[in-house]
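sanity check this record:
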Amino acid sequence: MQLREITDDNRDAVRSLRVRRNQKQFVASVSKSLKEAAKTPGAHPWYRAVYRGDEPVGFVMLAWKPPTGPFRGRHFLWRLLVDKRYQRLGIGREVLAQVAALVRADGATELLTSYEPGDGEPWPFYRKLGFRPTGEIDDGEIVLRLTFPAG
């Protein structure tokens, strides 16, 4: 599993990745995510295509220590999308492990994310990986924290 930059050579393939129909309310498309990143440079968007071998299988985007806003100075998992053909293969878990390692290497003690509650919500996935609710709500979404052990 590799996290690769999105370039002119792979942009269309990455933008064609899709989640299952019942997941669309919880995960924005890659195209929408890239547009949001372009519109909000102040959030310090950091994004990568997820590859398994030579095949793009997912997309991940973080707000990397934005200087303002509710997550000022913190790392926030903004998007995680695994294509419907590659779900339930451990890809999401591996992506989060790689992202967590990058964030820890940047000196962080936690990684935040949020989800919109509803039938089919991603909370069970995040809970299994060690995320816990912070008690915060951001724009109707429940904020979660993954705390990194000291050392």
In short: The helical segments are 11-15, 30-39, 91-105, 123-128. The chain has a mean pLDDT of 94.
